[in-house]
Sequence to fold (126 residues):
Amino acid sequence: MSYLLCECDTKHIRTQDISSSTGLSEKAIDTLISLRKIDSKLTSTISKILEDKNLLYRIHDCCSADYSNSDFETSYNELFSSTERHVILSPDKLEQVNLMMLYNSLRDFVNDCRNATIEKNTNSDV
Fold:
């Protein structure tokens, strides 16, 4: 309706529609649209990131964690044994653990992308 009354352009309407259906901010959508016009390789990478739920959850965990609270208790089983160990992690250690897990997820993501590119190039040479 706003478009029919010349109150906004079609780009703004399209951005609002995408925003309301995905929950992404209008600024994020405008960035995606402008990146698509500049370099489609970037949007391909962004698409792969959005498809990787593990990576997104790790980023979310690091961004939303409150490390100012008290210690965190967890347990694990020792390697080659059924002995369960209980560990108390300080907020600093918990933050390090989360960042290391994010790093591992990001490393795996990058390696998967590189391997897919290598495989694609190998198959196109044949």
In short: Strands lie at 72-77, 84-89. The radius of gyration is 22 Å. The first helix runs from residue 10 to 22.
